[in-house]
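Private note to self, pasted from the team thread so I don't lose it. Backbone tokens:
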């Protein structure tokens, strides 16, 4: 019996050792599995690293969930897979365990993705009350994630554009198709692989063969794999369909129309000859001349750009540009008498015969026949075009009896009806536009070479505005006010028209691009740089450096307060524009009496231009415009910083209970101009204006008021018109004058460009 018992005992011990070893092996394998970083998608499990982003919509943010999930994951890390035991703890952390149903299993068994999705959908129903999380079906077009614009988050390109991707779920490979959870255009989780078909809509196909297609999408050139394509497709817009990770079909958009863009907004585009058509999603624009590229809407130069428009189901799918814009015409929004964009009931007459087009109907009109817009535009029409037969004819705003209320306009008139009223656009050639700008911006009595300078500057400035399209929604490039260039407010003259003709097509270029040729009326003897507008003095504006116009410049640094004061108060100084009555001026600001006005005006500028008004409370903390009322009276004003040409970049105003720093020459002129009195020019003549003539002045404290000794009229950047006239009087030609005001430029002709 003893021997038998001994054998049995030995067998039990062996079994126990074997079982222990097996358990240790299982635990070791389990431990190693938990430590493994999951890098691939699976239907069999869900990685714990996927969960923080999916739960971000709940009580805690993603970073907090990372820490909580580490605790649930036995405090180690986010590696490994979700088990039923950890799922239970997670639901307890969310306080929803009583409301979630699922098939419970042993704690160490992995939760399949389908089971987790069922749980997650219930969590969404309970906690995502604002419906922040949505489900999208996406196909991934590129191999790897790339950094977004902030350089930190990753993003992936899909058939619906770019999505950022949460850190723990970037399993995606080229042509993978998944159903995913999305929050704020960020992929936060994966539901499952997608087995249906997905379509990339309105994509530009540059070329194809039987095996590949070259496409442009989201500013990227992408090569797609395909098999068996019979038709070669070149430079058009298509829909591309994927099924089971392969291109299954390409649908070419066949319908195409051609015309010029007359206006556009975020929903529709107006095309010459076709009227207004809608488009859905972002407007896709592609150029095929030179390099093939996808462009932004800023490149749609209205009125000057012949383009092809791909159309399907009465919507524009994309725009194809086969040649660059030809800068020939400009479209000017004619403002109403109050400076607004809309007219109440415009009436026109013309001094020549012409035609009026409403919709697809055109009727002839006789010279001096009143054209009543409200009578022409009934409920079913919203567009009128007035065209004259004679190129020398003019169109006028008129009263109901046909009497002219404006100067005559060359070109054509277009009127569009909006809810706010009627928008009136004058389409005219660029050169004829300058016929109306040059005399409105510079007296025709100025020297011939000065007028030529003005013509080149005005043309350059106009070309820049043509490319910007600020008024694209109203079918225009610019308006006729000082916000752009004053247009048609003075009669054309032989002298100004000759200046335009003698410089036809000439613009200022800097580093190969048309330069924004800023100009102003009169300098104080020096011009400034972009620092006066609180802009960095970077390479982009390298041609706008402050210069001296003083006859005998000693090279003194007038950004120094003492040196500038000595200069501006010197009545004997002469410069190229010292004949102007604005070369010197003087004003007074009674700060105690005008403290409320100053506070209110600062508040006005803070709302309009918050980045250039710094409000500091008594304790030095940031204040708001609403708190200015409690700042009390002005105690002191001083110059914080001057530019190289002497203009004030920063003005400091100290109150009883706070301080304000004003940046930009305009804010300085606006605030002090509202409180200024006894403003007089160098001849002692009173000046009636709310805006100080310039920001080139000193502040001299008196018993009851600050006395301002100033010089110049305008912002002080670029070309001084009176300075140009003074240079012309000395015999300088217009090219030399331009080279003086603008550094390192060339004068080139836009009509000679290929």
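Design output:
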């Amino acid at each position: 019996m003893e021997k038998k018992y001994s054998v049995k005992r030995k067998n039990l011990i062996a079994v126990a050792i074997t079982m222990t070893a097996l358990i240790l092996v299982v635990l070791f394998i389990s431990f190693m599995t938990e430590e493994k970083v999951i890098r691939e998608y699976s239907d069999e499990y869900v990685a714990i690293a996927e969960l923080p982003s999916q739960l971000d919509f709940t009580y805690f943010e993603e970073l907090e969930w990372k820490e909580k999930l580490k605790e649930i994951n036995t405090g180690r890390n986010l590696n490994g897979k979700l088990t039923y035991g950890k799922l239970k703890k997670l639901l307890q952390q969310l306080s929803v365990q009583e409301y979630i149903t699922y098939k419970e299993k042993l704690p160490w068994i992995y939760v399949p993705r389908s089971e987790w999705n069922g749980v997650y959908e219930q969590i969404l129903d309970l906690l995502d009350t604002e419906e922040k999380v949505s489900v999208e079906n996406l196909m991934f077009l590129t191999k790897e994630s790339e950094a977004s614009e902030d350089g930190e988050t990753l993003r992936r390109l899909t058939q619906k554009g770019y999505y950022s991707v949460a850190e723990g779920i970037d399993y995606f490979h080229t042509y993978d198709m998944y159903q995913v959870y999305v929050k704020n255009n960020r992929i936060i989780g994966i539901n499952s692989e997608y087995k249906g078909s997905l379509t990339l809509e309105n994509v530009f196909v540059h070329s194809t063969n039987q095996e590949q297609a070259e496409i442009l999408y989201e500013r990227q050139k992408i090569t797609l794999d395909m098999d068996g394509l019979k038709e070669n497709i070149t430079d058009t817009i298509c829909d591309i369909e994927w099924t089971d990770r392969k291109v299954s079909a390409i649908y070419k958009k066949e319908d195409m129309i051609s015309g010029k863009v007359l206006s556009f907004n975020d929903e529709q585009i107006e095309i010459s000859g076709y009227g207004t058509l809608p488009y859905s999603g972002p407007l896709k624009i592609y150029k095929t001349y030179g390099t093939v590229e996808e462009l932004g809407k800023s490149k749609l130069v209205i009125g000057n750009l012949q383009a092809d428009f791909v159309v399907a189901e009465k919507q524009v799918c994309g725009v194809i540009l086969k040649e660059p814009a030809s800068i020939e015409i400009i479209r000017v929004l004619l403002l109403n008498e109050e400076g607004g964009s809309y007219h109440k009931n415009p009436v026109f007459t013309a001094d020549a015969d012409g035609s009026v087009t409403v919709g697809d109907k055109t009727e002839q009109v006789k010279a001096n026949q009143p054209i009543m817009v409200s009578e022409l535009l009934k409920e079913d029409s919203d567009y009128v075009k007035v065209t004259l037969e004679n190129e020398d004819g003019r169109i006028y705003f008129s009263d109901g009896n046909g009497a002219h209320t404006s100067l005559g306009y060359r070109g054509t008139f277009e009127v569009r009806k909006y809810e706010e009223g009627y928008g009136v656009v004058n389409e005219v050639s660029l050169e004829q536009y300058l016929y109306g700008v040059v005399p409105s911006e510079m007296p025709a009595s100025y020297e011939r070479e000065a007028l030529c300078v003005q013509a080149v500057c005005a043309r350059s400035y106009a070309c820049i505005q043509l490319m910007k399209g600020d008024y694209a929604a109203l079918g225009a490039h610019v308006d006729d006010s000082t916000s752009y260039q004053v247009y048609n407010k003075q009669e054309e003259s032989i002298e100004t028209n000759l200046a335009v003709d003698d410089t036809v097509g000439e613009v200022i270029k800097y580093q190969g691009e048309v330069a924004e040729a800023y100009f102003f009326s009169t300098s104080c003897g020096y011009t400034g740089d972009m620092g006066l507008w609180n802009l960095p003095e970077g390479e982009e504006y390298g041609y706008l450096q402050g210069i001296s116009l003083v006859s005998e410049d000693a090279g003194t640094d007038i950004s120094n307060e003492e040196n500038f004061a000595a200069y501006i108060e010197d009545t004997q100084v002469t410069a190229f524009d010292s004949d102007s009555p604005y070369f010197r001026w003087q004003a007074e600001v009674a700060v105690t009496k005008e403290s409320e006005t100053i506070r209110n005006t600062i508040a006005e500028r803070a709302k309009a231009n918050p980045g250039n008004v710094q409000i500091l409370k008594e304790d030095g903390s940031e204040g708001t415009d609403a708190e200015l009322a409690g700042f009390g009276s002005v105690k002191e004003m001083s110059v914080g910083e001057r530019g190289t040409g002497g203009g004030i970049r920063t003005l400091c105003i100290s109150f009883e209970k706070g301080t304000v720093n004003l940046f930009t020459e305009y804010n300085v002129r606006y605030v002090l101009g509202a409180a200024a009195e006894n403003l007089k020019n160098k001849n002692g003549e009173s000046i009636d204006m709310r805006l100080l003539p310039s920001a080139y002045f000193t502040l001299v404290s008196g018993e009851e008021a600050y006395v301002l000794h100033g010089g110049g009229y305008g912002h002080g950047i670029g070309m001084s018109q009176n300075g140009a006239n003074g240079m012309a009087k000395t015999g300088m030609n217009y090219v030399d004058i331009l080279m003086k005001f603008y550094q390192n430029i060339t004068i080139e002709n836009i009509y000679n460009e290929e």
